[in-house]
Design brief:
Blueprint: H1 2-23, H2 29-49, H3 60-84, H4 90-97, H5 99-111, H6 119-135, H7 145-171, H8 177-200, H9 210-235, H10 240-244, H11 246-261, H12 270-284
Helix pairs in contact: 1-9, 1-11, 2-8, 2-9, 3-7, 3-8, 4-6, 4-7, 5-6, 5-7, 6-11, 6-12, 8-9, 11-12
């Protein structure tokens, strides 16, 4: 089951790249992401607010945790990506976003005593990041100060996403996945909405089309509700580094999907970069059953 969820997440988050890319032709970036998360929150609300036993955080500590991780995961991470891609290529953004797994490896060592840094993990992570860089090697140039600022923003966003995931795994194991996603969005979405309304105007003035509505529906329901629910379910059952390795696979699959669906040119070096990424995933994620399992995961075997 965990293998299926891992692969499903890789496929979903890879496909969101295409929906975002074509959706930005009609909708402004922050308005687009605001509508996506508002829809996701609306879908989740009945399952959280009216669930038997209540879906409200049970203590001030839980409120603080969900508020902090919401700002990290949604406000900072998503805002940085959408803002930065005005100044840098999507390929460079993908490479820098891959830093999520690097930060995750280090932060897991700090916050999760059972997840040690090992030579195997380091080799797998480095190979995966290099694989992503190889695929987008022709897009890695930084030509001005705003492009450099965009790079810094995405790296900070990658750190925010990794820190959020580690804190959720370390401190939110007793909170249901749908409640985590919902309250994170409730806490993290307001700054994005305010910025969107102040800089991009009212959604009533957007260039609406059936295609734009369909993209918001897909990204809200599939790319957010299903994806984040599955991610937090998975994060509670496998090592955090293994879960975050998905961020290395999504750029590869996104390139392939773009080639198949949009007729985009497939970089010649995709094969070599893909081999490195697949090897890194095989080395770390799809372990043999005999691999050591951390104490807190002993009840369920690794992927």
């Amino acid at each position: 089951m965990k293998i299926f969820v891992w692969l499903l997440l890789a496929l979903i988050w890879s496909s969101t790249w295409i929906f975002i890319k074509v959706g930005l032709k009609d909708l402004p970036p922050f308005g687009f992401v605001s509508l996506r998360f508002l829809l996701a929150a609306a879908v989740l609300a009945p399952f959280v607010l009216f669930r038997k036993g209540g879906g409200l955080p049970k203590s001030r500590t839980e409120w603080k945790l969900l508020g902090l991780t919401g700002v990290l995961q949604f406000t900072l991470n998503y805002s940085s990506v959408f803002w930065a891609e005005q100044y840098i290529t999507s390929g460079l953004a993908a490479v820098l976003q891959a830093m999520i797994v690097v930060f995750g490896l280090i932060l897991a060592w700090i916050f999760l005593p059972s997840e040690k840094i090992t030579a195997q993990k380091i080799i797998a992570v480095v190979a995966g990041v290099i694989g992503v860089a190889v695929i987008f090697v022709d897009q890695l140039g930084v030509h001005d100060k705003m492009a450099f600022a965009g790079c810094v923003a995405i790296v900070l966003g990658a750190y925010a996403a990794a820190q959020s995931s580690i804190l959720v795994k370390a401190k939110a194991s007793d909170i249901r996945p749908e409640a985590i996603v919902f309250w994170q969005m409730v806490c993290g979405l307001p700054p994005i909405i305010i910025y969107s309304l102040s800089t991009e105007g009212s959604p009533m003035n957007y260039r609406w089309s059936l295609a734009a509505v369909g993209r918001i529906l897909y990204l809200g329901v599939i790319g957010t509700v299903l994806a984040f629910y599955s991610y937090y379910w998975l994060l509670n059952r496998i090592e955090s580094t293994s879960a975050m390795m998905i961020s290395l696979v999504t750029p590869l699959l996104a390139v392939v999907i773009g080639w198949l669906v949009l007729g985009e040119t497939l970089p010649a070096q995709t094969g070599f970069g893909g081999i490195l990424i697949i090897a890194s995933v095989a080395l770390l994620v799809f372990k043999r059953k005999g691999s050591p399992v951390p104490t807190n995961l002993a009840k369920e075997p690794e992927l």
